[in-house]
Amino acid sequence: MGSYTKRDAERLLKVKNHILRYWEKEISLIQPAKDNQGRLHYSDRDLQIMLRLKYLIQERHFTMEGARDQLYRELTERDPGREDIRAHAAALRSELLELLALVVKNERP
Fold first, then answer.
1. Contacts of 86 (CB under 8 A, 6+ apart)
2. Tens digit of pLDDT for each residue in 44-102?
3. What CATH number is attached to the domain comprising 43?
4. Which of 4, 48, 80, 86 could form a disulfide with 42, with the two C-beta atoms 3.0–4.6 Å apart?
């Protein structure tokens, strides 16, 4: 399970810091933790939520309110036939995030 700094999140998501702050404020599902020095760290789940949010807003042209509602629906609706698929997809996304983080870290000058 990964832990990503705000800078890591900016690079992985390709969004600016003020966008991350806005998303944190608007989407209560995003819950970064603070370390001993007060720096924020995002979990894999936080990044997955933000990736989905970015997709909904930029690709599907949802408003923030519409994207928020869609995220809540996706995370709360239960369909027993799709539970296994969702769990498998979440595991794959986590692995891909870890790989992407490695690639981004190796790109640093």
1. none
2. 889 989 999 999 999 999 999 999 999 988 887 766 666 666 666 777 777 788 787 77
3. 1.10.1660.10
4. 4
By C-alpha distance, which of 32, 51, 62 is closest to 89? 51
Q: Quote the CA–CA distance of 107 and 40 in Å, as a whole number.
A: 22
| Bridge partners for 40 per DSSP | 34
CA distance 97 to 101: 6
Residues 54 and 37: their CA atoms lie apart, in Å, by: 28
Model confidence at 103, pLDDT cuts 50, 70, 90, reads confident
Q: Where are the beta strands (DSSP E) in the chain?
A: 3-5, 33-34, 40-43
Burial class of residue 54 (count of CB atoms within 10 Å of its CB; 0-12, 13-18, 19+): middle
Task: Tell me which residue range forms the domain holding 102.
Answer: 3-107
Distance CA 11, CA 109 (A): 13
How many alpha carbons fall within 13 Å on the CB side of residue 50?
30
